[in-house]
Every structure is written in C-alpha cells, then in structure tokens.
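Field log, afternoon session.

UNIT: design team B
ACTIVITY: writing a sequence onto a fixed backbone
BACKBONE:
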C-alpha cells in the first residue's frame, strides 16, 4: 500500500457541493463516466444523468425509500438519544384505585405512573461499504439495506445514538488507495429512510457519485476501469475512523439478529 487518500464529508450536501466546485483531473475529464448519458450507462447506473443523481442525493430517493419502508418492520427510534418509558407502581396516590387493596385497607391502594428516562451517551459509528458488483439487483440491495436500517432503529430504541456513513474504498494500478466517507445519518437525528435510501440502495451513488469523486481525486491514477475494488479486509484497514464496518456482502446472508450481534462484538 503506497498511500491512502482520505476524505470525510459530514453530510450529503457537503459531498454534493464538493463535487460541484472541485474540477476533474485530466484523466477524470478523459473518461468522465460519472456524466455518461448513453442508454447502456443509464441502465448500468440507474439514472439518466449526473444531475438526476445529484437531486436524488440531496433530496432523497423516494422510490427506493418506500421499498425499504415496505420491507422493514415498523420500528421507530426515540431520537436524540433519549428513550422514555412508563412504569406502573402501587402508591398512596395515583390515577386509579386498586379495589382489592382498598377493601383490605392497604394504604398503597392506587396505581401511579413512574416515568423512567434513559439518557444515552453511547454513540456508535457505522460505515457501510456501498461498493457492489454489477450482478447484484436493486432488490438484493433493498433487502440488505432494510435489515441494516431495522437493526439501527433497534439500537437507537435501546439507547444508542448512531452515525451512519456511506463508505467506499478502492485502489489504482500504482497501489494507491482512496477512502471515502459520507455521513448519511447523524447521531442526533431520527433514522430517515428517504435520506439513506439513495446511498445504500441505488447503484447510481457508486457509479456516478463515487466515480465522480475518483475523477476529481488528485494523486489517484485513474484508468478506464476506475481502479480495482478492494477486498473486505483491505477496506477495514483503510477505514480511518473508529467505526463498525458493514457491507452488502457481510450482511446479505445474515439475519437481523446476526447483524446486531456482529455490531455488538465490533464495538
């Protein structure tokens, strides 16, 4: 490994703006796959143009978000790291009498509500590798993304706060690596399938946005194959932050319980 070129963006808007203001390298202009608008490339990427892809990145992919929502169970994260639960207990005063205790003369003869608040201070970073080969269908990606989204919702319901990053890693023919992180969910916000659907499910994120990133990357020697996909262990090694590494290949064959256990063991 010669060197790792690392960029981390704290929001999709920050990433989209960087792509707008950063010029392509000479090789990026030569190949320019991210802007290719041929029929074959539309089928390959899932979008007709880079502008269409930018709109999906910034405003959300509603079609795929609806598919994810239809696939996962309805679990709502409590948000902002707080979970409030109510517990009933016996008390001298409350909102409802307990008739047997009243008749028995027990002073603890009323039902009262005790609010329990759990303040979460546990922040978990998850980096999901968006690189997949062209044989994987959108339906395959949706099923796996739905499981991951459901696990994240469960983690947050149980007191964790999760930062979710779309992650990509690759290498050129001179053995230089790039490592890209784009935050698609902040730990202080609810899990929003509209915001995460495009990076996790739509092949256009990798085949237009990550390609566009490579086309602008100084020090990365771009060729017509846009480098090589790095194997799982290499991607983990190039991950520059303390985060749990996930990918389609790691999660697709696992149940939600197995994914949750994997994350638990990786913390």
């Amino acid at each position: 490994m010669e060197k790792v070129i690392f960029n981390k963006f704290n929001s999709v808007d920050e990433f989209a703006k960087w792509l707008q203001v950063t010029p392509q390298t000479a090789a990026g202009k030569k190949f320019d796959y991210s802007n290719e608008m041929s029929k074959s490339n539309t089928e390959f990427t899932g979008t007709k143009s880079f502008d269409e892809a930018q709109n999906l990145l910034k405003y959300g992919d509603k079609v795929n978000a609806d598919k994810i929502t239809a696939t996962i169970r309805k679990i709502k994260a409590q948000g902002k790291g707080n979970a409030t639960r109510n517990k009933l207990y016996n008390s001298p005063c409350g909102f409802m009498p307990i008739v047997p205790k009243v008749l028995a003369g027990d002073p603890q003869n009323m039902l009262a509500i005790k609010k329990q608040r759990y303040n979460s201070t546990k922040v978990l970073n998850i980096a999901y590798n968006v690189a997949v080969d062209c044989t994987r269908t959108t339906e395959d990606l949706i099923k796996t993304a739905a499981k991951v989204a459901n696990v994240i919702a469960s983690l947050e319901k149980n007191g964790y706060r999760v930062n979710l990053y779309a992650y990509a890693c690759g290498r050129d023919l001179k053995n230089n690596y790039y490592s890209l992180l784009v935050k698609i969910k902040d730990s202080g916000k609810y899990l929003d399938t509209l915001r995460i659907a495009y990076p996790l499910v739509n092949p256009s994120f990798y085949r237009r946005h990550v390609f566009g990133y490579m086309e602008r990357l100084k020090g990365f020697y771009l060729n017509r194959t846009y480098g090589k996909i790095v194997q799982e262990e290499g991607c983990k090694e190039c991950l520059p932050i303390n985060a749990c590494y996930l990918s389609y290949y790691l999660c697709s064959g696992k149940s939600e319980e197995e994914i949750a256990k994997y994350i638990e063991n990786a913390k």
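LOG NOTE: Confidence is low (pLDDT under 50) at residues 74-86, 116-120.
NEXT ACTIVITY: expression trials, pending approval
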